[in-house]
Specification:
Order of helices and strands: EHEHEEHEHEEEEEHEEHHHEEHEH
Distance between the termini: 43 Å
Radius of gyration: 19 Å
Strand content: 15-25%
Strand order of the largest sheet: 3-2-1-6-12
Largest sheet: 5 strands, mixed
Helix content: 25-40%
């Protein structure tokens, strides 16, 4: 009897020029630690294509966001006579959405990749994280062949008023996700699906985009972009949970209550000693670390610690 075919997973990283050196280190660690990563897609704006082209290779492709997003949404730099906080980085402008910054559009690129690449699942890795231990993409799946279920990170009850700012931002993201999907108003505490290393199924993503368009009567980019702030992780997680309830006889995801990546979310820049200490506190089940770029931690210090 033939062995069921393994499910294929593609690694995806949305990035931008300011994270280039961090993204380069991520690529090096994927090549070093993830032996079965046969395709890594880096999603960038048109203005960053030339810079990121140096990272391309047999298993790595740089994807132009213009191939992912509708033509009516394009990045523009505002006039230089405006304050630096407005003119230093581009905005994505259209008549159909609120003006968006790069971190908004990176979320849209993640969702859009489902229509661009034929695969079974995606492992999304932020460009300010790195692998530090050997890892196989096959570990993300449970079961065989078409019946296999993909890992889904879920911190049950993780969105509550004990979070910074009383959890208001996370609650807004969760309410927005429910509205986009036509789901009931969420109750809190609510589940948190946000992590800088998450896994989504392509078939579920395509169904999600169709649901948003059916619910709102708008193109999915326009529907999401009409919110001032949103979370693609909360949108996907809410949909996957609802879809699981509807497809009671078919398990598409298996739940995981711990993140595969330990993250330094905020604080001062870490030096070598602090980085060593941070690595030593990792859960044995974790395979990567994330150092939020706005902490200013130098990736050059991290490289020799993880690529020994």
């Amino acid at each position: 009897m033939a062995k069921p075919e393994a499910r294929r997973t593609v690694i995806v990283t949305p990035s931008y020029a300011g994270d280039f050196e961090r993204c380069r280190l991520l690529c090096e660690t994927i090549d070093h630690f993830v032996a079965d990563a046969d395709q890594h897609l880096i999603l960038v704006a048109a203005e960053d294509l030339e810079q990121f082209a140096t990272l391309a290779g047999p298993r790595r492709t740089i994807v132009d966001e213009r191939d992912l997003l509708p033509a009516w949404l394009r990045s523009q730099r505002l006039p230089s006579w405006l304050p630096a906080r407005l003119s230093a980085r581009p905005f994505w402008l259209s008549t159909r959405t609120w003006p968006m910054r790069g971190w908004h559009v990176q979320q849209l690129r993640r969702l859009a990749i489902a229509k661009h690449t034929d695969t079974d699942g995606f492992l999304f890795c932020d460009s300010d994280m790195v692998f530090v231990r050997p890892f196989s993409l096959a570990e993300l799946w449970q079961g065989d062949g078409q019946a296999a279920a993909l890992r889904l990170y879920c911190n049950v009850g993780g969105i509550h008023d004990g979070l910074p700012d009383g959890g208001r931002l996370h609650q807004d993201w969760t309410r927005g996700a429910a509205a986009l999907l036509g789901l009931p108003e969420p109750k809190f505490p609510a589940d948190d699906f946000i992590n800088n290393m998450v896994t989504w199924r392509r078939d579920t993503m395509l169904a999600l985009l169709a649901r948003i368009e059916d619910t709102t009567g708008r193109h999915w980019v326009e529907a999401i972009g009409r919110y001032r702030t949103f979370s693609e992780c909360q949108i996907y997680g809410a949909f996957a949970q609802d879809r699981s309830a509807v497809l009671a006889d078919r398990r598409e995801h298996w739940p995981a209550d711990f993140g595969l990546c330990q993250t330094y979310w905020s604080g001062e820049a870490l030096g070598e000693t602090a980085l060593r200490g941070f690595l030593e506190t990792m859960d044995p089940r974790q395979v990567a670390v994330g150092l939020q770029s706005f902490t200013g931690t130098d990736p050059a210090i991290l490289r020799p610690l993880v690529l020994r």
